[in-house]
Amino acid sequence: MTILDGKKTSNDLKNEIAEEVKAMKERGEKVPHLAAVLVGNDGASLTYVGSKVRACERIGFESTLIQLPEETTEEELLDHINKLNNNPEIDGYIVQLPLPKHIDEQKVLLAVDPDKDVDGFHPTNFGKMAQDMPVFIPATPFGIMELLKRYNVETSGKHTVVIGRSHIVGRPMSILMSQKGTPGDSTVTLTHSRTKNLEELTKQADIIITALGVPEFLKADMVKDNVTVIDVGITRVPDETKERGYRIAGDVDFAEVSKKADFITPVPGGVGPMTIAMLLKNTLLARARHNE
Ligand code: GUN
């Protein structure tokens, strides 16, 4: 059994990007500048955005955090987005999701300039990805593809079962795994909350990618031997023994499933750190595109 170490792989990636930034600086070029917009005080979102900004600092990117109160109106948010679109200093930016309920998420994502959409959530970028002309691939699926690539996990002709059909993870993941290439060339089943007999499908899977958000949902008796398991779940579970009052749980019963797996990602330290590294990679790409 091999653990797909996202922490180590993301550090390798960040070091590679930092080298490129250093070379850019030496040539007197502008370094990539990522902005993040955070609306409200969701604890998990604050943590994620904080990690993204710190990662920028570590590798030599410029970063800007725009933190807005929970009561921000849709119009005010759209105004910030318009300013980011028109600010030549900003190469790429993200609007952290979820947004407060009074704001129409789709309207906001449509307002992001596709050339600065380093999350890859705009339909233009999603469509280009789906039609084999990728520009910005959403960071979590991109990170999973990179992990599979760097660990030489065989995906061609394999049956990949994706659990969860979100726009951010499950849907793009199903597209990428079915596309031509390495990794890719999988036969994909995209499952979701209405899927019947999920267990029958997971038992047939060579590769399982779970993005469900139900702690320890995937049990050992739901998988076959030599499976590859990618766990995208990160749920905060109350835990009094921890100083912060919670622990982070994945979608997979790691202790038991890992006994049957060939490859498996841990939580934490698997997909999470890869997401941040790929966002940085997309921002580097955005900078290069703006130079063209
Ligand atoms: N919320 C959960 N994951 C993500 C992500 O990758 N990007 C943004 N913007 N928000 C998220």
UniProtKB/TrEMBL annotation:
It catalyses: (6R)-5,10-methenyltetrahydrofolate + H2O = (6R)-10-formyltetrahydrofolate + H(+); (6R)-5,10-methylene-5,6,7,8-tetrahydrofolate + NADP(+) = (6R)-5,10-methenyltetrahydrofolate + NADPH. Catalyzes the oxidation of 5,10-methylenetetrahydrofolate to 5,10-methenyltetrahydrofolate and then the hydrolysis of 5,10-methenyltetrahydrofolate to 10-formyltetrahydrofolate. NCBIfam families: PRK14186.1. It holds the Pfam family THF_DHG_CYH. PROSITE patterns: THF_DHG_CYH_2 (PS00767). Residues 4-119 form the Tetrahydrofolate dehydrogenase/cyclohydrolase catalytic domain. Residues 138-289 form the Tetrahydrofolate dehydrogenase/cyclohydrolase NAD(P)-binding domain. InterPro entries: Aminoacid_DH-like_N_sf (IPR046346), NAD(P)-bd_dom_sf (IPR036291), THF_DH/CycHdrlase (IPR000672), THF_DH/CycHdrlase_cat_dom (IPR020630), THF_DH/CycHdrlase_CS (IPR020867), THF_DH/CycHdrlase_NAD-bd_dom (IPR020631). Pathway: One-carbon metabolism; tetrahydrofolate interconversion. GO terms for molecular function: methenyltetrahydrofolate cyclohydrolase activity; methylenetetrahydrofolate dehydrogenase (NADP+) activity. Belongs to the tetrahydrofolate dehydrogenase/cyclohydrolase family. Its EC number is 1.5.1.5, 3.5.4.9. Keywords: Amino-acid biosynthesis, Histidine biosynthesis, Hydrolase, Methionine biosynthesis, Multifunctional enzyme, NADP, One-carbon metabolism, Oxidoreductase, Purine biosynthesis. This is Bifunctional protein FolD. Homodimer. NADP(+) binds at G164, R165, S166, I234. It comes from the Bacteria. One of its GO terms (cellular component) is cytosol. The keyword NADP applies. Transmembrane segments: none annotated.
